[in-house]
C-alpha cells in the first residue's frame, strides 16, 4: 500500500468481509435469543446489514474496484467468540445478556471501522461516498443504542423483581 487511497480501499474490502460474515452469524444469534425484543433487534440488524453490504458494493463499483479479496480477521474472532459462548450451557436470561454483550462488541468494531472510512473518504474528496458510509455508521450507532437499551431494561426488570 502506497497511499491513503490504497489503505481506504483495503479497509472497504475488510468491511465488506466483516458485513458478509455478520450476515451469516446474525440468524444464529437471533435463533438463540430468548427475549422477543432481542430476537427482533437481531432480525432488524440483519436487514440493515444486508443494506450495508449493498452500499459497499455501490461504493467499490464507483471506485472501480472489487469489494472481495479480504478476510476480516477481527470479525472472524468476534463471531468465533459468540459461537463458543453459545456452546456453553447457559440459563436463558444469561444467554440473552451474553448475546447482547457479543453483539455490542461487533457494533463497536464496526463503528470504529466506519468512522475511519468516513474520514478517509472525506480526505480523499469522495463526498458522496463519505455520506453513504455515514448512513451506515449512523445505523451501527442506533443498533448499539438499542442493545444498550435492552441491557438496561434487563437490569431494571431485575431491580423490580
Ligand atoms: Fe453493518
UniProtKB/TrEMBL annotation:
Membrane-spanning segments: none
Short name of one Pfam family: DUF892
Superkingdom: Bacteria
InterPro entries linked: DUF892_YciF-like, Ferritin-like, Ferritin-like_SF, YciF
Record-given protein name: Ferritin-like metal-binding protein YciE
